[in-house]
Write the structure tokens for this entry.
Amino acid sequence: MAKLLGGYILNPKTYTSEEETETKIKLRSIDLAYSILDVKCYTPINEVKKRYLQLMKEFHPDRYSGDAKIEMEEKTKLINWAYSEIKAIA
């Protein structure tokens, strides 16, 4: 069964071991995290943090109302996830 993650289709049958598959998926999720924050993979963590704070300020749900507020809550969850993934490897 293929798994879609960040625009990539990962087919576990193409890898030799489960550990290798998990490594490939983890690398793809980190690539996705960098693309969500719109930073390069070699960006220093302090610059990533600045970008994270900038995006959180821009998309904070309290600045919106109605359906837009719900959409912004989802965006901020995604931004938080991305930052936590990048911070975990830094």
